[in-house]
Amino acid sequence: MVEQRTPFIAGNWKMNLDHLQAIAFVQKLSWSLSDAKHDFSQVEVAVFPPFTDLRSVQTLISADKLELGFGSQDVSQHDSGAYTGEISGNFLARLDVQYAIVGHSERRQFHGETDAVVGAKAAAAVRHSIVPIICVGETAEDLAEHGPSAVPVAQLREVLSSLSADADIVVAYEPVWAIGSGKAATAEQAEQVCSALRETLVELLGEERATATRILYGGSVKSENIARFMREPNIDGALVGGASLAIEEFSRIIQFKKHVGV
Ligand SMILES: O=C[C@H](O)COP(=O)(O)O
């Protein structure tokens, strides 16, 4: 991990916690981090609740002046109009949403999102000053057929073709076979792909932007394995699913520096 990039721990709640549960969760998480004297300038933290929770989370964070960030799990590629069920980046920006996850493998798998759609969604986020967290990652079949880096790198190239080189982005490498499986990639496997993604960023965005861009690892991250990932030079944080729903566990992941002296 290069110190000039602030580590970032992002909690993707997926389709869990309604808006009342979200309020209780954010309060307890902030108490836990406050008790631990967490320094948000050293490790940035954001939660990604379902759309219906965003207003409640925004109100709480703003009223209590919490340093916790928040984002959405998706964003429409369209800004307004006859797109039933879609949520515009414009609406999200009005709720102070800072980040939008785009191209999560569950969107690709269950909603047929292609790299072109993911690119359009990333561009929509950028239009509204929301930082897209661009998810890439290979399935077990991709891994067997093409090796570790080919598919994630190809996905990143395609998505970045929709963005200008100066767009502020975060990249999340999530091997599909590691998501929710309890079988995380090894730190070496994750670093190998994240290093290839960094090289792709250098080629497409230039050295300076590539060096400033954070690359997260996601897939069965827990408090017992986070430190291994954070020791790698091209891994700048984690996109956490299941473990982000347990306050004490998520809090331990966030405080990885204290527990292992990274
Ligand atoms: O967005 C988060 C990822 O899909 C990882 O989920 P997981 O930590 O439950 O494996």
TrEMBL record:
Q: Can you tell which superkingdom this protein's organism belongs to?
A: Bacteria
State any GO BP term from the record.
glyceraldehyde-3-phosphate biosynthetic process
EC main class here is isomerase
* Catalyzed chemical reaction(s): D-glyceraldehyde 3-phosphate = dihydroxyacetone phosphate
Question: Pfam families from the entry?
Answer: TIM (PF00121)
GO molecular function terms listed in the Swiss-Prot or TrEMBL record: triose-phosphate isomerase activity
Subcellular location per UniProt equals: Cytoplasm
GO CC terms: cytosol
Q: Which InterPro entries match?
A: Aldolase_TIM, TIM_sf, TrioseP_Isoase_bac/euk, Triosephosphate_isomerase, Triosephosphate_isomerase_AS
Name the keywords, alphabetized.
Cytoplasm, Gluconeogenesis, Glycolysis, Isomerase
Main subcellular localisation: cytoplasm
Which residues bind substrate per the record?
N12, W13, K14, G180, S220, G241, G242
Q: In which pathway does it act?
A: Carbohydrate biosynthesis; gluconeogenesis; Carbohydrate degradation; glycolysis; D-glyceraldehyde 3-phosphate from glycerone phosphate: step 1/1
Q: What EC number(s) are associated with this protein in UniProt?
A: 5.3.1.1
Q: Decide whether keyword Magnesium is in the record.
A: no
The answer to whether the entry has keyword Metal-binding is no
Taking the record's annotation, the residue ranges forming a coiled coil are: none
Q: Where is the active site?
A: H104, E174
| Subunit structure, interactors included | Homodimer.
Spell out the family assignment given in the record's similarity comment: Belongs to the triosephosphate isomerase family.
Per the entry, what this protein does is: Involved in the gluconeogenesis. Catalyzes stereospecifically the conversion of dihydroxyacetone phosphate (DHAP) to D-glyceraldehyde-3-phosphate (G3P).
What name does this protein carry?
Triosephosphate isomerase
UniProt source species: Klugiella xanthotipulae
Q: What is the lineage of its organism?
A: Bacteria, Bacillati, Actinomycetota, Actinomycetes, Micrococcales
